[in-house]
Amino acid sequence: MNSEELMHKMQFRGYDINVFGFHIPISDSIIVMWIVMAFLIIVSIIFTRKLRMVPTGKQNVAETIVEFVNNFTKGSLGHHWRPFAPYFGTLLLFLLFANIISIFNIIPTGKGIAEFTGLSFLEHLPEIAPPTKDLNVAGALAVMSIVLVLFAGIKYKGPKAWLKSFLEPLPIMLPFKIMEYFVRPLSLTLRLFGNILAAFTIMELIYFAEPFLLPGVFSIYFDLFDGGLQAYIFVFLTLLYVGEAIE
């Protein structure tokens, strides 16, 4: 694999959808996000049908996830946790599945693999890449998080007290407090984007070096563990920012 092939794999392809004469560009990252969202919606519907007072089977799984999210949110936000739990639960599940979706590439595809195996159809199979390796996706999620921080601070402190907090403990802190609202989303963006992109790049190099045995072993860390860890860190840091804003 030369550097050009690797760069091509790291980039998202674009598609044009013609709607009433208008060409709407759709990138691979958007398509993968639609897949993840559709999966979460379908699973949510399945797991929340016919709920009973005494949980069994799939209801146990659903309640375990909800309880984990509630406790996780409550631990950071205290008695203000309830309005925020649905958002953080959704964000955690979306990031978790979006980050680990490249586990489905454990059967590598592409021209090199097709030539190596003699199976020409592998060249035409699409490669599923995590949408969070797209800087735009990571940035959009970070902006959503910082907007939530702003909303929480204004709602629970009140506009006047929230503005006053920029001058605490000393008025000289004003420029630094303002800078936080730009530095924090930038930090969230680069941390998520950088880690997922690095893991994806390493896995591509592993696929090239040994396409059958090594990917399955290393994918446990780079796809599953690292993807889950980055989802947790992103949500945890956002929780800390919200907790700081409302206290």
Describe, in plain words, how this protein is organized in 3D.
The structure is a single chain. This protein is mainly alpha-helical and 247 residues long. It has one domain. The protein is 68% helix and 5% strand. The chain contains nine helices and two strands, in the order H-E-E-H-H-H-H-H-H-H-H. A two-stranded antiparallel sheet has the order 1-2. A hairpin with a 2-residue loop joins strand 1 and strand 2 (22-27).
Structure summarized in a few sentences:
By secondary structure, the chain is mainly alpha-helical. The protein has nine helices and two strands, in the order H-E-E-H-H-H-H-H-H-H-H.
Largest sheet: 2 strands, antiparallel
Average residue-wise pLDDT: 80
Count helical runs: 9
Shape: globular
User: Count the strands?
Assistant: 2
> What distance separates the N and C termini?
52 Å
Taking all Cα atoms into account, the compactness measure Rg is: 21 Å
Class of secondary structure makeup: mainly alpha
The SSE order reads: HEEHHHHHHHH
Total discrete domains: 1
Helix content: 55-70%
Residue ranges: pLDDT <50 for 5 or more in a row?
A: none
What share of residues are in beta strands? Answer: under 5%
Largest beta sheet: strand ordering: 1-2
